[in-house]
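explain this:

___
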Amino acid sequence: MADLFGNAAKTDDYDASNIEVLEGLEPVRHRPGMYIGGTDDRALHHLAAEILDNSMDEAVAGHANRIDIHLESADRLTIRDNGRGMPTGKHPKFPDQSAVEVIMTTLHAGGKFSGKAYATSGGLHGVGASVVNALSSDLMVEIARDKILFQQRFSRGKPLGPLVEIGAAPNRRGTSVSFTPDTEIFGAGAKFRPATLYRMARSKAYLFAGVEIRWRCDPALLGNNDPIPAEASLHYPGGLADYLTNATTDKALMISTPFAEMVELDGQKFEWAITWLGPGEDGFFHSYCNTVPTPSGGTHETGFRQAIVRGIRSFGDLVGNKKAADITADDALAGGAIMLSVFLRDPQFQGQTKDRLVSTDATRQTEQAVRDRFDQWLSADAGRATFLLDAAIERADDRKRRKKEKEVARKSGNKTSAPSGQIG
């Protein structure tokens, strides 16, 4: 039936039959942006990060010391660790399925909710591996456990068969995941970028000194002048201090020795490295929680900033410089090149892609970890501390001067535009 304008008549029918229920991994394929932030290049590489984070969790927990990353082709990636391997037995709640199949096909299935299997972890919500599976046209998982190799294949989140026993594996242990992102989701031109994956692998190796990451890439994917190696062993015993040195190699520095330490408080770890760059150089703040990058910052960054600015103010008060009280965190950290990595129990992130840490306790915990050690670092070299204090005061004076100039300009503008009297 049509209305007076020829349009189809609207229906008011809305009953129980209109309620759709998406089962299994259908919600992921229906709305991938909810789980990986979109379907663009960044989201594509987030799939790799989810699988790599699982292997890193095994390493941080002390069960693995090696991770292999192999970019086999532009659209095929394998990540393998020598950890404990996914459990292969039947799941008590789903007796017809192996634990591997439950992990790979069920949202919010994992071993990181209670803290019993992992004290700290980057994977939190039990959706990482299953989301990668849902958004891959082909995925194969291999588990070497109890000297036996198991294998199972999936396509778009659905098993192509049960978990099968391949044979004996006396010299192998851990989990291997090989996958091809689905072009139905990411588009026909979807491909991995070697440079992005290599940087991801290198940052993970810097963040946990106890792991060696072996990188391998098909040489055909690299250009003749490509700085990315076809093969590399990434292992950095110096941790974030090495990371900072690498990141500032070609930059002018204000101080020769960075402030870099790692401490453990109440079973949680805090590591940082900071230096100050010379004039004209752009500073940066790279932060991580449980090896997961937090590009939007968060409460751990807030705690670090508070520790630094309060430490410099305290030193200023100690030497009787009253101007130190006016220093802000921006004054203290301008030009700062900062690396911060924290390992927290049950961290809270904003969103599934974990771009921002929102754990309320992280501000206090990070400041507590950094503050005393920063005070000691400042007092160990009065000349260096005075230099940083003077630089911060100079920036504070400049900030206040610019603010005053803006106020004068604003007042002058108001006087110029004010009505001069009645017209006529």
